[in-house]
Amino acid sequence: MTQPRREILEKLTPVLTKRWLSPDAWKIGVYERLDGYAALRKALDVHPDDLIQLIKDSGLRGRGGAGFPTGLKWGFIPQGDGKPHYLVINADEGEPGTCKDLPLMTYDPHSLIEGAIIASYAIRANRAFIYIRGEAVHAARRLRNAVEEAKAKGYLGTNILGSGFDLELIVHSGAGAYICGEETALLDSLEGFRGQPRLRPPFPAIAGLYASPTVVNNVGTIASVPYIVLGGPAWWKSMGTEKSSGPMIYSLSGRIANPGQYECGLGITLRELIEMAGGMKPGHNLKFWTPGGSSTPLLTAEHIDTPMDFEGVAAAGSILGTTAMQIFSDQDCPVYSTWRWLEFYHHESCGKCTPCREGNYWMVRTYRRILSGEGTLSDLDTLQDTADNIFGRSFCGLGDGAATPVVSTLKYFRQDYLDYIEGRTAPRLSAKALVGAH
Amino acid sequence: MSDTTVELTPAAAKLAGLLPQALEIIARYPAGRSRSALLPLLHLVQTDEGFVSPTGVAFCAEVLGINKAQVGAVATFYTMYKRRPTGEYLVSVCTNTLCNTLGGQQVYDELSEHLGVGHDETTADGRITLEHAECLAACDYAPVVTVNYDFAIDEATPEAAVGMVDKLRNGEAVTPSRGARVCSLKEMQLQLAGFAEPRDGAVADGLAGAPTLRGVTLAQEHGIAVADFNPDTPITTTKPAREGKTTPANPAEAAGVASNKPAADAKPAGDSVGNEVKK
């Protein structure tokens, strides 16, 4: 392990992670002493339209993967339409590699609740939902406790802090379906159906939850709002880059000395992050990595200086995603890794559209054959062809995400595939698993 | 629905004791939108039975006024609704790529051999249900093992996992790494149904581990903070917050449209609600 240099450490921007250092910050009294609910008081003193403009001015972009400008999304909600509006927070964190929302909700749940109240006031919603991944039980425990505390203090309920604004906030646990992280599948799930994506348009801003105007935002996006309300857009933009403003929690895992959560301005590079994390694990050299979860095309050692913002990662041919950086070394096999991701996508495919449902089924089987030492050269063409027929032809992004590691490993690590097929690498799976697979 | 008494048929009567909680769940959602309660209701029936049985399906259908096929379609879609009786503790081992690479597969394989059960199977003594799980959102602690979905072992080894399940089977105390104190799977389901944690101190359990705090601790140790943060920075305003002190901020309310009332397009809960959007 190596010590990071001072100029690298100065790239840390502890904003959303700062309260995590206070072990009792999940209690409302401690939260209030740490600037808590100050932003709400400030926000309720201005017109909702001015809050939307404030968020637009900050340049805040969605933290859930797509990077859509948050203020613009809020502005899409038609006002004075007589319909109820809804805020739905996507807390269905499950993208492989992503682990930033769970700690935020567990150790600083009030920051999400405060952001939710401000956002609801801005879009004029009187009911908000936090759709939290079912498996995240401890985070849900803390959130529900925080909602009750906030109600008791008059931050939730009717006539919040004398403003005349009413809000009810429900914490709704999912039940173990990755697809519900897709916003329209999440809405169907919240309505009590199988979580399957909807055709867009209409977009949720027009016909979302209960066919009413709805904003769906990620946990990190909403938790950023109180800081922007307090510090202002100019301060927020002092972090990150011109087009990707603010701090971002980078989740580093895998073959590095100190895996963990590192909050830095958008635009930091993997090289800098690895230095911050004490270097690679002894004996390991960087081979491939995900910039933002397994659904984003893999990058290699040659991309180590790519700026980790929306534009920089896109220019390298991938997607910033959730900044979930899973780091693999020369001791890890890209073919085996891709197979395991595909087993995941195959399991999580909702079954609604044919390319994703059938394509993943067949790709998993092709990988098992290659990893059992029974692969053929034509299997590589079959994989490429199947992936090409899933990507861009599926109903939602899950199919694209599944095709992604296949296409990128075939591009960068074709030799690793050939080594299995031509017998230079020992099989990783038993041929017994192939019964019925042909 | 939520303010009327539900008469259960014999098919669901066994779960009549859950009715008060079921009505409480339904009341969380807007009037006319009771179907939103289906996921928490399915969690609720698991507090009693440990899985979703035909009785549980009938119970959900009857309290929501939908049919059993509609409930069954949902129950079979989601991984956390179990279709067979479960053990007292659900032990999940992450075997998704990163945990797998760092030893999660070995942890799972050795646990499976030690317990003599495979994925989604329960030991003969009814204590442990084993499963391999997909990414549990704790990659910085890989490989991870959860008990009843609470983080139980970080950077797990086969020895640590085998030691823990032996303790669980012998009724010895197990202290989870970052989750709340262990209870039975059925008791835990109450959380998923959306009720407050009833056990004293359980909400406070579980400190953040070093990986979670790594970046922010480095910043603190080296005195690094984001400069120029002034919480009194004014917000640019173009119009008054409210027209008068008594006027609510919500224009819909000001226009006489009461908030928190059913939508103008309110329809009875059922498939039509989702379909109309999907067409």
The CATH class of the domain at 35-237 in chain A, by name, is Alpha Beta
What is the overall silhouette of chain B? flat
Could you give a short account of the major beta sheet of chain A? 5 strands, mixed
pLDDT averaged over residues of chain B? 88
The level-1 CATH class of the domain at 89-185 in chain B: Alpha Beta
Tally the beta strands of chain A.
Answer: 9
Q: Name the CATH superfamily assignment of the domain at 35-237 in chain A.
A: NADH-ubiquinone oxidoreductase 51kDa subunit
> What is the radius of gyration of chain B?
24 Å
Order of helices and strands of chain A: HHHHHEHHEHEHHEHEEHEEHEHHHHH
Report mean pLDDT of chain A, rounded to a whole number.
96
CATH architectural designation of the domain at 35-237 in chain A: 3-Layer(aba) Sandwich
What tags apply to this protein structure?
heterodimer, A: alpha/beta, Rossmann fold, de novo design (two linked rop proteins), 5-stranded mixed sheet, 4-stranded parallel sheet, 18 helices, B: alpha+beta, Glutaredoxin, 37% helix
Task: Give a structural overview.
- The complex is a heterodimer of chains A (438) and B (279).
- Chain A contains 18 helices and nine strands.
- Among the domains of chain A are: 35-237, NADH-ubiquinone oxidoreductase 51kDa subunit (Rossmann fold), CATH 3.40.50; 334-434, de novo design (two linked rop proteins), CATH 1.20.1440.230.
- Chain A has helices spanning 6-9, 28-33, 38-44, 48-58, 70-75, 101-107, 109-123, 137-152, 183-190, 204-207, 219-237, 270-276, 310-315, 334-348, 354-371, 377-390, 397-412, 414-421, and strands at residues 86-91, 127-132, 168-173, 214-218, 247-254, 260-265, 286-289, 299-300, 324-329.
- In chain A, a hairpin with a 5-residue loop joins β5 and β6 (260-265).
- The model of chain A has no long low-confidence stretch (mean pLDDT 96).
- The termini of chain A are far apart.
- The longest helix of chain A has 19 residues, at 219-237.
- Chain A is α/β, with parallel strands linked by helices.
- Chain A has a five-stranded mixed beta sheet, covered by helices on one side.
- Chain B has 279 residues and is of the alpha+beta class.
- Among the domains of chain B are: 13-75, Arc Repressor Mutant, subunit A; 89-185, Glutaredoxin (3-Layer(aba) Sandwich).
- Chain B has ten helices and five strands, in the order ααααβαββββααααα.
- Chain B has helices at 19-26, 38-49, 54-64, 68-75, 97-115, 158-170, 185-192, 210-221, 251-254, 271-278, and strands spanning 89-94, 121-122, 128-133, 145-147, 150-153.
- In chain B, β2 and β3 form a beta hairpin.
- The radius of gyration of chain B is 24 Å and the shape is flat.
- Chain B starts with 18 loop residues before the first helix and ends with a helix.
- The interface between A and B is large, with 129 and 112 residues.
